[in-house]
Amino acid sequence: MSASILKALRSKYDEELEHVGFIMSDGSVVECENVSSTPAEAFDVSATDLDRYADEAIATWHTHPKAGSNLSVGDLETFLLWNTMLHYIVGKDDIACYRTSGRNVVKHETDGSIPRSL
Q: Structurally, how many domains does the chain consist of?
């Protein structure tokens, strides 16, 4: 993952609300509106943003307010649905990357480059 992408992701961290978006094939970091009814605890992306970004996205990202970058049960379920992308969680401790492997989600190490596919 490039330094500029990591910097952009770190800038999205917020102690109060979850933020969510995509990393696009050109390396840009796009933030989507969090339409969750409980944005301090969860995220949802609107159908409009999904239509706009999902086909060109290579990864998802979201933040964990006041928490670490560990995988939650909700993350596991979402990541399994979006099993062709990498998934980044920005926590107060660090940024973690995950990928699906069958019906499991595992931590994924990156080599500093923009991922093109799994």
A: 1
